[in-house]
User: Fold Holliday junction branch migration complex subunit RuvA from Bradyrhizobium nitroreducens.
Amino acid sequence: MIGKLKGLIDSYGEDFVILDVGGVGYQVHCSSRTLQHLPSPGEAAVLSIETYVREDAIKLFGFRTDQEREWFRLLQTVQGVGAKVALAVLGTLAPADLANAIALRDKAAVARTPGVGPKVAERIVTELKDKAPAFANVDPAVVHLAGAVDDQRAPRPVADAISALVNLGYGQPQAAAAIASASRSAGEGAETAQLIRLGLKELAK
Assistant:
């Protein structure tokens, strides 16, 4: 199996690059994000490779980092997500942003991917929620709160405060982070109005 390729960029296709390695041109399929970051033809590049062997073809998928390749594999453990959809998701969200979106149950961020509807986005954030926090750079308290809100386990004042901030136009992840911080400041038993006030102060920083 091919795990890495180092060579010169020969040419680009719509969703692939031809990488010249010692005179052999390898066709490597990449996300749009990866293609945008690769150098001009004639320049050197290194790609982490995932090799798919089928009865009728061998297909190579290329990534700028091993972490991106790991996400490509993880995404395909979700029902209804194949290589094409996984590449599209990675073309829309960088690995760190994808990890944060899953950790915060931000279905809307994943659904921005062309070809990914709300149902598939929901499956991605639900089925990968236990794997994302290891990659995410989000405060664990925010991850916990986002999960509690999503599962309807959050205290009513907290859930209402987040809902109020979302209604004011803030994204769910922003609102959850602000209210998590507000809850820490106010302590247990804080009322909705107090949490909203503290959350807005947090967002204004």
Remarks:
- The chain has three domains: 4-63, 66-134, 140-204.
- Residues 140-204 form one domain.
